[in-house]
Structures are given as C-alpha cells and as structure tokens.
C-alpha cells in the first residue's frame, strides 16, 4: 500500500468516527524503521489541510534518561519496552483527553536525551497522532494504553526488510558495517520481534 493510500484510509476512518466534542487520539504503532513517523507526518498534514487541527506526540519523548538506564544496567537496551517511563506516558495521554492544552516532552536524537515541555498540544487540536513502537504492545502496563485510542494503526514489514533498514540506519550514523549489524541484532531487532509477536488488535493493519 502506498503512503498516500494509507494516509487516505486513516483520514477517512478518523473523520467518520471522531466525535466533534472530544479529542481523538490516533495510535500509529509498529516496529522500528517501519515508517511510523513518516506516516504520522503525512496524516497530520492532510488533517490540517482539511481544517481538522492535528498534532503529533512521539512516544520517544518518554525515554528514561541515560543516568537512570545506567543505574539499572539498561543503557545497552535503550529503546526496549522497559526503558520508557510508561507511567508518565499514561499520565500525558490522560491529560490529552481531559485538558485543552498539554505540554509534552520530545526526544533530541542529536543530544540523546529527552527535552521536557518541548512542545504544546493546543486546545484547537482535535486530533493527536501518537506514534511509537509499543502503543499496541500486549504486555503488562503497555496493554493498558488501548483504552486511550480513538483509532489504532499497526504498521508491519517483512523481518528481513526491517533488518536491512535498521543496519542502514546505523550506517547512516557513521558506524562501520559490522558494528551497525551488531547494534541492529543486539537491540533493535529484539525490539522489533517483541512488537511483531506481542500485539493487540488494531483498527487497521498496514504493510510497508
């Protein structure tokens, strides 16, 4: 399915089902390197062009800080489910459904850290697109997130293709091929398998 077709399908679905008096949270979940961020951006642009105010909240803003990960011997698994502050994430989702304006953190990849209150969801934002690996994860704590989604999308891809993309992602960061392969296999692909193998049902499943 093309990006345009996928965007149109989600747009039509959320436009038909959203309640005008209530903010709609749209989950875009899937393994790393599957194209979640690109899809979220395209959907957000289409909604805004149609005068349906929308904003994006990336789950990556809820990474635990590196000092916490080091203290718990988890820095090498950064990006795995247990390296996120799920409690803070849930509180923010609750606020998004309850409050008009909500400040959210963003993850700065260049600095490898979370920036608190880096963005603000405004009262006019009828749709909030939340994108991240574990939004539909069927594991303790994470499965509770299903209650927040007005509409949910799961994006999947062939595992071999994910391996190629994840290695290339590390190559783009300047690593040599062997180191990039180790990074992908020792963490990223473990996380990808978790996302693919332990997932709740979504309203729409896409293959990228």
- Give the helices and strands as they follow along the chain: HEHEHHEEEEHHE
Give the strand line-up of the largest sheet: 2-5-1-6-7
CATH architecture: 3-Layer(aba) Sandwich
**Secondary structural class:** alpha/beta
Oligomer classification: single chain
Task: Give the topology, please.
Blueprint: H1 3-17, E1 24-29, H2 36-49, E2 54-58, H3 66-71, H4 86-98, E3 102-108, E4 113-121, E5 127-132, E6 151-156, H5 159-172, H6 177-197, E7 204-207
Parallel strand pairs: 1-5, 1-6, 2-5, 6-7
Antiparallel strand pairs: 3-4
Helix pairs in contact: 1-2, 5-6
Keywords:
208 residues; alpha/beta; Rossmann fold; two-stranded antiparallel sheet; globular
């Amino acid at each position: 399915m093309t990006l345009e077709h996928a965007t149109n399908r989600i747009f039509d679905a959320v436009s038909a089902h959203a309640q005008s008096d209530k903010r709609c949270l749209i989950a875009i979940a899937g393994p790393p390197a599957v194209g979640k961020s690109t899809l979220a951006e395209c959907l957000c642009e289409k909604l805004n062009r149609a005068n349906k105010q929308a904003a994006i909240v990336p789950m990556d803003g809820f990474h635990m800080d590196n000092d916490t990960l080091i203290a718990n011997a988890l820095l090498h698994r950064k990006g795995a489910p247990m390296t996120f502050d799920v409690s803070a994430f849930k509180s923010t989702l609750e606020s998004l459904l309850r409050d008009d304006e909500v400040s959210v953190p963003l993850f700065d990849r260049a600095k490898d850290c979370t920036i608190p209150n880096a963005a603000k969801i405004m009262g006019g934002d009828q749709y909030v697109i939340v994108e991240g690996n574990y939004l539909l994860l069927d594991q303790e704590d994470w499965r509770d997130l299903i209650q927040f989604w007005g509409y949910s999308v799961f994006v999947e891809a062939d595992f071999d293709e994910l391996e190629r993309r994840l290695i290339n992602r590390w190559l783009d960061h300047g690593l040599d091929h062997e180191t990039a392969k180790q990074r992908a296999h020792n963490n990223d692909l473990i996380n990808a398998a978790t996302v693919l193998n332990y997932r709740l049902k979504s309203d729409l499943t896409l293959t990228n």
